[in-house]
Design a protein that fits this description.
The complex is a heterodimer of chains A (445) and B (492). Chain A is α+β, with helices and mostly antiparallel strands. Chain A is built from 15 helices and eleven strands. Chain A has a six-stranded mixed beta sheet with strand order 1-2-6-3-5-4, with helices on both faces. In chain A, helix 3 runs parallel beside helix 8 and helix 9 (286-299) packs across helix 14 (404-415). With 492 residues, chain B is an alpha/beta fold. Chain B has two domains: 16-216, Metalloenzyme, LuxS/M16 peptidase-like (Cytochrome Bc1 Complex, Chain A, domain 1), CATH 3.30.830.10; 238-489, Cytochrome Bc1 Complex, Chain A, domain 1 (2-Layer Sandwich). Chain B has a six-stranded mixed beta sheet with strand order 8-9-7-10-6-11, with helices on both faces. Chain B has a five-stranded mixed beta sheet with strand order 1-5-2-4-3, sandwiched between helices. Classes of the chains: A alpha+beta (445), B alpha/beta (492). At the A-B interface, helix 2, strand 4, strand 5, helix 4 and strand 7 of A face helix 3, strand 4, helix 5, helix 11 and strand 9 of B.
Chain lengths: 445, 492
Amino acid sequence: MLRILTVLLLAGALAASPSSGAPKAFPYAYDQHDLDNGLRLITIPTDYPNVVALFIVVQTGSRNEIEPGKSGFAHLFEHMMFRGTPAFPPARYEGVLRTAGAASNAYTMDDHTAYHTTFSREDFETILRMEADRFQNLSYTPEAFRTETLAVLGEYNKNSASPTSKLSEVLRDTAFEKHTYKHTTMGFLRDVEDMPNQFEYSRLFFDRYYRPEYTTIVVAGDVTPENTRALVEKYWGEWKRGSYRPEIPAEPPQQGPRTNSVHWPAPTLPWVAVAFRAPAYSDQEKDQASLDLISYLGFSESSDLYQKLVIQDQKVDMLRADSPDRVDPYLFTIVTRVKKEADMDAVRDAILATANGFKERPPAADRLDAVKRHLRYSFALGLNNSESIAGTVARFVALRRTPETINRLYEVHDQVTPADIQAAAQRYLTDSGRTVVTLTGGKGK
Amino acid sequence: MKSLWIPTLLFAASLQAAPEPRVVALPGKSPLVTFRFVFLTGAASDPAGHAGAAALTASMLTKGGTRDMTYKQIVDAMFPMAASVSSQVDQEMITISGTTHVDNLQPYYKLFRAMLLEPGWRKDDFERLRDDAVNYLRVSLRGNNDEELGKEVLYQEIYARHPYGHIAAGSASALQKMTIADLEQFYKDNFTRANLVIGLAGGYPEGFLEQVKADFSRLPAGRATAVKLPAPKKAQGLQMTMVEKNTRSVAYSIGFPIDVKRGDPDYPALLVAQSHFGQHRLSGSRLYERMRQVRGLNYGDYAYIEYFPRGMFLLEPDPNLARRRQIFQIWIRPVEPPTAHFALRLAMFELQKLVKDGITPEAFERTRSFLTKYVNLLMKTKRAELGYAIDSQFYGIPAYSAYLKQSLAKLTVDDVNRAIRKHLRATDLRIVVIAKNCEDLKKKFVANGVSPMQYNSPKPPEVLEEDKAVENLRLDLKPEAIRIVPVDTVFE
């Protein structure tokens, strides 16, 4: 079924009136096609010449790490996917990418893992065939597995120089009890150190999740839907469907505020993180969209709190809030870096007062419109090349398997009223759903 | 050596002949318009005792108010457009850039123009941005990012007592002494028509470029900044700087100056050698393969022939970091302390091998093919294309993509191996180490004892055989050539 949407981005004003029938947020025509085995293909022809961006999105991430001791496994598996097949051992695989002048990498998130390659149009079939091979025929030895686990430890090591990695680790661990969002995608250090002993489990992980029904291929660039479909059917059509469905433990409601603190061994400026339990991603309900809008209304560079803490009083040098899109209920988080330890409590209280303010009164309508316009333009400015278009779609495909969810999400945004903002704040920015984590460092100059 | 200066001289001549700012324009149909204004000046022009003046001046322009508007008013005006203005400061370039949707072109440009032409020089902006600059050095760089720390210390060591001798962000003590008047003076001397390159790309309407040119002719004419950049002093043997800090692992940066930059006859050949040896963030290059893929020593290992800051956050380099002087550099990502000695030896072993054996015809063909196509990916956004075009003007070369493809087509494996022998070496270089317990590590380096490698899985015999050579590799590090510095003295 070829679905063609009108290209609106070029047509004119993007957000002249966000509250009255704004154009589609995702302006590109795309073709969405399901193979018989459950694999989904999304092709987005763009007017950027010669280049093709391929994102292969597997709907498994650290959320799927349900067994104790296995945190970090989705990410480890992302590494293993570069360890070759009988037809394309690593050296040959790398040789093909090299000759093609391709840029290739991968990343692991809470809900998905994405493998991406950007290359010249003439190498499309070669790359697609090679990628199909590794998703279907990955084969590695226990020796290669053990060696790769050390590269993962190396990644943990390079991340460990930053206190924000630790802050995020402790925040999740404190805010969640049962759900796998309790751990970061890197995983707990103890599990990372035990990875060399988990060869068998790695095979099980591949068998469970690297299946067509978990996978969506996103192609953006100098391509046609017809040719892309034909190539994907040819190389990916025989891939066998799986049957595994994980039971992700549900997180029980939080019964009261939680706090935790981290001591960082080296000198650093202190950090304060305030998190509230937040709803799952939705392109239908207004709550998650409302919290997203609150993150800009209350805590972005244009907010009163930023003006006070960063510009006027200069007590903090960084303030940001985020309500990330996740498959299951996650967190709305405000993070700040404070210049003096003595100001930490006052800064935390100012953040809480701002959050409470949304419960007490709705925001001004013109301010809400400005935030909506900001989000629309911000999204449009990000779609500035084929790779970023495919990468953006990949992020949403991980949630709903279609770019149409982007349009639905922005439609929901447009419908949010000041009263909706207040209602969402009352439901979610509560004391009982709150977690505060602070980080302080050793003393330096 | 003479050829090194020709493009620069030609460029300098064209500067003096130009009565108005030079323009690099890439009009197109995109609904986005990108501004990239480059001033050909930077940290190398920081006055004595004012390390960081260029960077702080640029921050005052882009993160401070204008004569008529406070910073808060600017942010509020920009916010509905999702737009901003940002700065990047390097030794010889200050880049002020931003992108807007064409819907908002005139209101955005009005702000952009006021920020550059009518800075506000407010005290509260100054204090906030100076704090940010000091905290960047003391906290973000020194405290939270061992890899960037190692790279920047390497540059400081190589360029000691040289115009490139301090990081563009400056030094904490100089920043703390700086005044608004110092920055106003820097602005007056450096933000001139003679230094300005106007870069504009995307779907701007007819007549807009002329408007921009007319507006910016209000800048004083000035004189082109002309800092003399002698060759830095060569290291004698291996010289090591160890930065002592409380950290989990050990990070290395290794390097030496080279007489090659874009536009020089050996640039394409050396680029092939570097890409083969350690293409940034891509697997399959020699160092990555031998250190990470085969031995699992760390997360990655790369090599460079051009300045490439923020490499841990970027897959491709940012443009407009053009320099007349470059270094060859190896970046070893953090390794576990028990393997630290072995890892350094292996990196040096591979460098020795590259210098001695060069690259094979097969590796040459593969790498040439890679670079010929990969250059297309570097230009995937208008923003990047514009930045590269401005850099090409700096280096006096045609469009980078055409320049590289044409040069690579003519290149032979012999050219590459001759360039390796001429410009690369495994001696007379500097090594920077970021580690805990530097004294212990220093003792090991100086003793030159065997550093056996333990693996968690069986290795092929050829790897174990190679390990014997690596674990006994003699690195002639004399105690007097090793300096240990506490981290809180770096960038102070």
